[in-house]
Amino acid sequence: MKLEVCHISKNFGAIKALDDVSFEVEAGKVTALLGKNGAGKSTLFRLIAGFYEPDAGEIVLNGLKTEQNRTKYLKMIGYVPEISSLYGEMSVYDFLHFAAQIRGLPKAICQDKIAEVVAKMALQNVLWQKNETLSKGYKKRVELAAALLAEPELLLLDEPTEGLDPNQKQVLRQIIADYAEKHMVIISTHMLEDVEVLASHILLIHKGKLSADTDLVQFKKTAGNDLLRSFQQVTEN
Predict the structure, then answer these.
(1) CA separation for the pair 64, 223 (Å, rounded)
(2) Average pLDDT over residues 107-122
(3) Lower CB density within 10 Å: C or N end of the chain?
(4) Domain spanning 2-76+155-235: CATH 3.40.50.300
(5) pLDDT of residue 207
(6) Where do the domains of the chain lie?
(7) What is the share, in percent, of the chain residues with pLDDT greater than 90?
(8) For residues 157 and 147, what is the distance between their CA atoms, to the nearest angstrom?
(9) Distance (Å, rounded) from C-alpha 61 to C-alpha 57?
């Protein structure tokens, strides 16, 4: 399994959000996407997830380009954005059932898959609550549960532990780490603690360009084996 981002550029009017960005991601590790606010991280996620089309370059997932078979391409991706994408009036169960239908899960396995992600994300106690009544932490867990229903080959997580208490963070990190053993996982986060615990590879976007594409150990050597100082040094200009 492989994600190939090849010379991607994206403009919004006069603003160059991404400028000739290229990298590869493979299964078996968590990749952290870093960068200051406005660097282009969210734009990159939305391009990979198919919300935007690049102005130049191409994105290839397991040998398939978006334009070749958009439906098949999108079925390989699970995406949890930073801002909640839940329908507030739906119960947790109804939303998961809706997500399963949208993902095209066969009816024969739908209930089993819902039960599996409910147990994995510990959602039993809120299963019949409306999404709009949930805490931010629970909303994040419901969104991740929906993303995991179809076992996507590429999982994109934007600020995955934001709003979670320490115990929830620990559980969620383990779920992400376990999933990355056989799938591709990219997390976009400002929480360097998550990077230290989860990631083994770093992609750093600065002013629309890819400024780092290396493993975590090498990146930290940029400034005294310190992740924060290394981040600051690469993004200071």
Answers:
(1) 38
(2) 92
(3) C
(4) yes
(5) 94
(6) 2-76+155-235, 90-151
(7) 78
(8) 10
(9) 14
pTM check: above 0.70: yes
Give pLDDT tens digits for 32-48. Answer: 999 999 999 999 999 99
User: Which residue's structure tokens are 């383990």?
Assistant: 174
- The answer to whether the CB of 52 falls within 8 A of the CB of 10 is yes
Instruction: Report whether 127 contacts 92 (CB < 8 A).
Output: yes
d(CA 95, CA 101): 10
Q: Sheet containing 201-206: which strands, arranged edge to edge?
A: 77-80, 154-158, 184-188, 30-34, 201-206, 209-215
The dihedral of CA 160, 204, 48, 151: what is its sign? negative
Neighbouring-strand partners of residue 8: 21
Contact partners, residue 221, CB within 8 Å, separation at least 6: 230
Length of the chain: 237
